Structure to design on (281 residues):
């Protein structure tokens, strides 16, 4: 969605915006400082590194629009974020309790050194073409998210890598890529907003493995495809107090217990989610 979309028509409506961009930032600390100045009207989290920015924010629609315009046009950023794509969804539950802007070594941690996601990326597939792609018999569809996210909702016929942390994902690829290559399979990959796939596909290109990646991730698919339920089973987990969205980008009734309950290895995630809920009350 663009900032002039219907989701932003009501100035008082609480809007969630998610965005990222891999772009070289020679002075990431200066970008971090400026973003702290620009986020006084919104809540959420922004990670800044030499490889770009990764953010999830929420606030009144007019405040979100002002921030997005500043990100595109502020002179300090020198146009680096002018073409950034913002993925919007409405909120019932306030997603965040505070605003954090952090300077980090990477904006998403794959657990592999020296991955150049600025200069390399996989093959972007628009939502309508993605529907056709994942229906092909020679395509392996991989869910590039944590296992608890997969279990809450997924594309039909997608594979669960069975990981609880993104840094464990490369091992799954290394163990299975030779077999897929031998079988003549093409690899299609998706994640929530696209950032994990962009980082992973850059790394896989270093191994001469091309990757088809869902452009803009699941959230963009839900936005662009009114009948997304044809291809999607369940809900989409989001890392904020709303917990999950349906295929129409509406908050569902799922709770942290629905996501993490009954799994001892996820107990720490359940306790953290409960603390976040308490902080936002």
């Amino acid at each position: 969605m663009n900032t002039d979309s219907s989701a932003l028509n009501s100035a008082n409506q609480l809007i969630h915006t998610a965005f990222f961009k891999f772009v070289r930032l020679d002075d990431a600390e200066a970008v971090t400082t400026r973003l702290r100045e620009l986020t006084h009207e919104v809540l959420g989290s922004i990670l800044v590194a030499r490889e770009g920015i990764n953010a999830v924010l929420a606030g009144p629609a007019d405040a979100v629009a002002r921030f997005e315009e500043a990100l595109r046009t502020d002179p300090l950023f020198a146009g680096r974020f002018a073409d950034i794509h913002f993925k919007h969804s409405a909120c019932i539950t306030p997603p965040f309790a505070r605003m954090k802007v952090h300077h980090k070594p990477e904006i998403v941690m794959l657990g592999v050194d020296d991955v150049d996601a600025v200069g390399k990326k996989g093959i972007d597939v628009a939502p309508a073409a993605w529907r056709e792609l994942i229906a092909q018999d020679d395509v392996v569809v991989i869910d590039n998210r944590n296992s608890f996210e997969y279990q809450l909702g997924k594309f039909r016929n997608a594979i669960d890598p069975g990981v609880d942390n993104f840094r464990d994902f490369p091992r799954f690829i290394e163990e299975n890529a030779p077999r897929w290559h031998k079988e003549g399979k093409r690899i299609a990959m998706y994640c929530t907003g696209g950032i994990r796939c962009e980082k992973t596909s850059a790394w896989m290109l270093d191994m001469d493995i091309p990757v088809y990646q869902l452009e803009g991730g699941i959230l963009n698919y839900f936005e662009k495809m009114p009948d997304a339920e044809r291809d999607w089973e369940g809900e989409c987990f989001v890392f904020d107090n709303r917990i999950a969205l349906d295929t129409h980008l509406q908050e569902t009734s799922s709770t942290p217990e629905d996501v993490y309950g009954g799994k001892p290895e996820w107990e720490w995630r359940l306790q953290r989610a409960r603390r976040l809920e308490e902080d936002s009350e």
Q: What stands out?
A: The chain has two domains: 6-103, 123-280. Residues 169-182 form the longest helix (14 residues).
